[in-house]
Fold this sequence. Notes:
This protein is mostly helical. It contains 8 helices and 2 strands; from the N terminus they run αααααβαααβ.
Amino acid sequence: MPFMEDHQLSDELESIITYEPATNWQRLANLLIDNIVMNLTIDYAISFIVTSIAGSINPDWVKNFDKFDDLNAISESLLPLLLISFLIGLINTLLYYTLSEKALRGQTLGKMITGTRAIRVDGGELSFKDAFLRSLVRLVPFEVLSIFFQGKPWHDEWTKTTVIKSRK
């Protein structure tokens, strides 16, 4: 049974493959690049669309953007837009990281540039669930600082994933 022998050999070789973890500098670069992409492109585009729609529904919301000296005007007319913008940011983060890391086999634009990718700690490719959970954990307050507490970010630790160098 040559196929069985080949399959066993393949399993044995796969078990000895080792991965080099991404450096903290690479991870910081990933974070900065991905946030620039999200904030300068996607967030602004979505915010423009939402503001346009909100302005057509209630012109007072948009009309009061320049009245930052009157806190009552801000709280009464801009609070709904601020809440919508906050929710858009959360949804954007979930969508960007989940879809990128699943569709691009563990990569985002930042990871492509730095030559890194996310994988499961068992060496497997991220499932949709893995990518979604990594993205969800990123929304935890102060998660970005967790690398300084444990040496590993919570979105890796809690989801049993890691970021590795994909090229040397």
